[in-house]
Design goal:
By secondary structure, the protein is of the alpha/beta class. The chain is about 45% helix and about 15% strand. The two termini are about 15 Å apart. The structure holds zinc ion.
Length: about 300
């Protein structure tokens, strides 16, 4: 770890303890991303670092709720002003524990959230990223559109490796809830870079058709993987906007400062460390490293 990174880790650890200090650093909109919430992660989820244990999740969302002004995510699509330290809770992918554990805990705490779903997982039981890791290894990287129709040669072994995806009936149980919403993570869980425009359009439209069956769907889209430049570019943003999405979400970790852009940035929450310092580190590291670098 570099010296600025070590300094930063110590700094955010101290700062995270104080609500006032944290709020002074996070004016704007902070959008947090989770994936699965489970105490029994699959081999894929462990390796991909997408499973948050239930008690870690509970303490993280409790910290978010007492530190920030948590808003109903739907407000991000509107033009009204947001609280000075707004935060929103989001989930990506289509994991079962997102709903059976994550939504259940948020329901108990009365905290609103949105889940961005890939319907390929719901319809076919296949997350393309898990399948790529299963068939070709993690070192092969994230799959692109050419792998969107891949299916496992050994479905049972693959399912045990992948972990449990959400069923339509579980989604229906939560549909209609006053605080929970469903958005799109596109139909296939693959990178958008390299996709033909028609392929990206199909991935958007297929998912939109499935989401339209729900009462609580909103036209928000989060790009799979979500790093601008690496996983999608401006042409993909333009395509999705033209197709009618009201907001797009990236995984560029930072607070959204000032008036909201069409592309809203989100920050992944750490899966193992429940301390506020680690969450703040994820949220602020880009800006703070920049400042430390400038003043040295
Ligand atoms: Zn994803």
């Amino acid at each position: 770890m570099s010296l600025p990174a070590i300094t930063l880790r110590g700094l955010t650890g101290l700062l995270g303890v104080s609500r006032t200090t944290t709020r002074s650093l996070t004016r704007g909109l902070s959008v947090f991303t989770f994936h699965d919430v489970t105490d029994n992660p699959s081999p894929f989820q462990t390796a991909a670092d997408v499973a948050t244990p239930t008690e870690v999740f509970r303490s993280q969302v409790e910290w978010i709720a007492r530190t920030f002004d948590v808003i109903d995510p739907v407000r991000i699509g509107g033009s009204g002003s947001l609280p000075s330290n707004a935060a929103a809770i989001t989930f990506d992918d289509a994991w079962s524990g997102t709903f059976t554990n994550g939504f259940a805990i948020l329901d108990e705490l009365e905290i609103p959230a949105i889940a961005f779903l890939n319907y390929c997982g719901v319809d076919h039981g296949v997350d393309a990223t898990a399948l790529a890791a299963f068939e070709r290894g993690f070192e092969a990287g994230f799959p692109d559109m050419s792998h969107r129709h891949d299916r496992p040669a050994d479905p049972d072994s693959f399912r045990a490796f992948q972990g449990e995806l959400v069923s339509e009936s579980t989604i229906n149980v939560w549909d209609g809830h006053p605080r929970f919403w469903f958005g799109s993570h596109l139909y296939w869980h693959v990178v958008s870079i390299g996709a033909k425009r028609t392929e990206l359009e199909e991935s958007y439209q297929r998912n939109a058709e499935r989401l339209a069956e729900l009462d609580n769907s909103v036209r928000f889209v989060s790009f799979p993987f979500g790093q601008p430049g690496d996983h999608f570019d401006d042409s993909h943003v333009a395509t999705i906007q033209r197709l009618g999405a009201e907001r797009l979400f990236s995984a560029r970790s930072r607070v959204n400062r000032g008036p909201l852009a069409y592309l809203v940035d989100r920050t992944s929450m750490p899966t193992g460390d429940p301390s506020p310092g680690q969450a703040l580190m994820n949220l602020l590291h880009r800006e703070l490293l920049d400042r430390l670098g400038r003043t040295r």
